[in-house]
Write a structure and sequence with these properties.
The complex is a heterodimer. Chain A is α+β, with helices and mostly antiparallel strands. Helix content of chain A is 50%, strand content 13%. In chain A, the strands form 3 sheets. Chain A has a 3-stranded antiparallel sheet with strand order 1-2-3. A 3-stranded antiparallel sheet of chain A has the order 7-8-9. Chain A has a two-stranded antiparallel ribbon with strand order 4-5. Chain A is globular and about 85 Å long. The mean pLDDT of chain A is 88. Chain B has 4 helices and 6 strands; from the N terminus they run βαβαββαββα. Chain B has a domain of 96 residues: Alpha-Beta Plaits (2-Layer Sandwich), CATH 3.30.70. In chain B, 19% of the residues lie in helices and 17% in strands. Classes of the chains: A alpha+beta, B alpha+beta. At the A-B interface, helix 2, helix 5, helix 6, helix 7 and strand 6 of A face strand 1, helix 1, helix 2 and helix 3 of B. Strand 6 of chain A pairs parallel with strand 1 of chain B.
Chain lengths: 390, 158
Amino acid sequence: MSETKTMTINMGPHHPATHGVLRLVLELEGETIVNATPHIGQLHRGIEKLAENMNYQQVIPLTDRLDYTAASLNNLGYCMTVEKLMGIDVPKRARYIRVIMSELARIMGHHLWLGSHALDIGAMTVVFYAFKDREKIMNINEELSGYRLTPSFLRIGGVAKDVTPDFIRSVREFIEVFPEALEGYHRLLTDNIIWRKRTMNIGTLSADEAMSWGFTGPSLRGSGVAYDVRKAFPYSSYDDFDFEIPVGDNGDVYDRYLVRMEEFKQSLKIIRQAVENLPEGPVNVDNPLVTNPAIEDVTEDISALIRRFKIQCEGPTAPAEEVYHAVEGSKGELGFYLVGDGTAQPYRLKIRSPCFLLTSALPRLIRGHMLSDVIAIIGSLDIVLGEIDR
Amino acid sequence: MNMQKVIRVSSRRQEKGKLIVPLLKGLVYTLKNLFSKKVTILYPEHRRAVSKRWRGLHRLKTDENGELKCVACGLCAVICPPEAIRMTPYEEDGGTRYPLEFFIDEIRCIYCGFCQEACPKDAIELTGVYDYVDYTRADLQFDIEKLKRPEDFIFKGK
């Protein structure tokens, strides 16, 4: 009997199907993978370290660049952590606007996942339709915040500006047209024999194993665990809304796909409720130490002017305590661990990235599969390297 | 944990589904889309209108006499997260303050809009100009003269 030799190949970092700059070193035996090693860190920008030299509000635009496919969710996670540290209670209208923004961001992130996941496997059409619909959300973002991909719209203690009637109208319009588009994705993929053959029983992970790998979000729910931060630890008025957690049974690529497809629908349901029940009131907390005074007050009133200088130059200070707060990101539990030291700058900011833990399970998921299944598995985990490398 | 509200998505899962019919259904859907309205536009001849809140190229506002509203207080430079703004303040004998120099590094800027939120004189704003190009990095260090007229930098094609 002749001795078999394995072959080592490099996938990435500039491979289009690695969703960023992930480098995978694959050990192959024929076309079967015996071992895989992910190498990360090629998109490292030092966001955690940068945050230590900025005041609390300056960090907000940085958090947009974590998971840039669903930027508002990162804003929400960070702002809520700072508010928890400072003990600020956000007004209800602002909480609702935040919910609308973050659920739109979730749909946006899932669009990018759907498009690129299908494109990786070979279904070229879906990516065009997904991006066409994603464009509508980007227009909504633009209408509200002035920026399309990285809105930076949330502020400590509220949101930057109040919503416009145009915004409400375009969100309503989106709610109207989107279910039809979603049904279109289902028609293109769900029953398609090629799609099913490529995704069913690939990358299977049991519920216990998924939990022990630290999975969260749609990837965990695909394995059958009904854990959603929005339900388990409701934040930002999420307990006002009626929605369901989609859960899979098999824990393979196809179930993770179905879970995310159902999440589109649930997010839409939350947005509809939030838009219909949007309460009146202020969009910023009434706290002179945190809220930037309005420009009309600044020109009239010297104390407002001084307050603005104080808030902008020094920034709101936080007590010397540490807090952890997590939100349900589009990829999983996105947590921020913040240590204050009594000044206006964070002493330490640690970001719990769901994608990092998903990537750690890649070798386990890939092993034993064919080379072409690697791409399907990476796509189904929906990792974004901006969040892993930070 | 709140466990009652759960949807089992596996009901849509068909281990042994049909072969041809779903493929045809997908093809019909793409065919229908073939005749729908185009979503793309031919840039730069055609442009889409941007929102009023668009955060593009900066403008230093002027008053009715053409003087800068800016009093060079430096709030925008302090709040700017990427530190893209630098200025040299000057104060006349009468107490009038204005910037001698004012630079915004348009490459470094991340267009978060914090400068316009910070400004106590409403002197800086972000405009709807988004496609300005130049050949060197030095040319994209916008000074006062350039920042007064951002509309001149809209890309008009070759």
